[in-house]
Amino acid sequence: MNSPEIFNSETSYCGGRFDFEHAAREDVKMAYRTVKERAQDLIDAARRVVRGLPEIHFDFILNGEINAVAFKSNERYFIGFNTGTLFLLRCVIGRMLSDSQLFNHIGNAREEREDLGPLTDFVPDAEVIYQRTPLLTPNDAIRRHYATFLQDQAIMFLVGHELTHIIHGHVDYLRAKWGQKVTTELGGVKNRDQEARFERQCLELDADRRSIVSRIDSLRFTFDSRTLTPPWKQSLEHPVQMIFDWAISIFILFRLFGDIRFSRTELVDSAYPPLLLREGICYTAAAEVASEIWGVEVRPFAYEALRRARIQTELAFARVLSVGPTPLDPEFVREGPEHLQRLSNYKTVLDELLRPYAFV
Fold first, then answer.
1. C or N terminus of the chain, fewer CB within 10 Å?
2. Which positions ≥6 away from 159 have C-beta within 8 Å?
3. CA 139 to chain centre
4. Is residue 36 part of a domain?
């Protein structure tokens, strides 16, 4: 079997391969083709840097839920995105930038609609949302560019996250130790005990951290090449201008994959890190890399840009979903940082366990 056939066989349990080239609409073909080309460019760039990294096939799974996978089959590696991931990013980001009350600092928000109500009964399933609401596209050209940028950056982060699962040996390690054939971002995990769940959280945060480092390094290229100044900015005078916009895309993605509500139980019983832990890693990793690239004096500005980006994202979700901020569980506030520290401490142990499976 060739790679598309293997991909289809291995993902048949959750929808199988989506052959977008045979989609009825040209704009749908183009959207998926663009994402695949961008993903393949990132994979190819990694293979030029990581010695011995084999070919990795990227494709789409016909499934309306938001999810992404990485796996190995027939001695080949694969990364797959659910079609629902692309649709829901497009849906939510398009809705936000089509609202005159949101992201007023981007383009001419007065050209956007003032009558948009919330996405009531929102669920992270494209099939359900598609029946309830049309996709919206901003009227203002600059805001359209910004919406495209946010979606692209979110997708590239997620590709980098899944790529890390392969490069750092997570896929092979989980397969060898737990018999887990597919590494999914949501659901499908049947870890047997608390140790396994704790270990999986550590792997997910490792993938987040590495993908963040990669994306910040990509922003450096944009900043150094001033000819690539984005259309929503008159000039690029400071790197935190890019960090702010990039962080909004990441916080939107985290919100779609996560939940703002937390409890102590989720800290130890979930195989996936709660949203606030992922955001904490984003703050730390992004600020550290920014200070390494542009100097330690950038660190406080980077943290402030990340803080403002999170506030903008939360305000946007509050308006789009008509939900207010949910108070954090006091136990999470007290124990969350300690749990994150335990995960960070365990990374040294886990790195040794991963060494036989990793490509770096």
1. N
2. 38, 39, 42, 43, 58, 79
3. 26
4. yes
Taking the C-alpha atoms of residue 308 and residue 240, their distance in angstroms, rounded to an integer, is: 11
**Residues contacting residue 243 through CB under 8 Å, at least 6 positions apart:** 216, 219, 286, 290, 302, 305, 306, 309
Radius of gyration of the chain (CA): 20
Parts of the chain with a pLDDT under 50: 260-265
Domain count for the chain, please give it: 1
**CB atoms < 10 A from the CB of 293, how many?**
15
Residue 2 lies in a domain: no
Which pLDDT tens digit goes with each residue over 265-319? 455 556 667 777 788 888 889 999 999 988 999 999 999 999 999 999 989 998 9
Q: Which ranges of 50-193 does DSSP label H, i.e. alpha helix?
A: 83-97, 126-132, 141-167, 170-178
Tokens of 266: 């989720």
Task: Report if residue 359 sits inside a domain.
Answer: no
Short-list 193, 203, 216, CA closest to 287: 216
Q: How far apart are the first and last CA of the chain?
A: 29
Spatial separation of the C-alpha atoms in residues 150 and 232, rounded to whole Å: 12
- The structure tokens listed for 315 are 């305000």
Is 309 part of a structural domain of the chain?
yes
Question: In degrees to the nearest 10, what's the CA dihedral of 40, 41, 45, 47?
Answer: 20
Q: What does residue 302 show for φ and ψ, rounded to 5 degrees? A: -65, -45
pTM greater than 0.85: yes
CA–centroid distance for 339 within its chain = 22
Length of the chain: 360
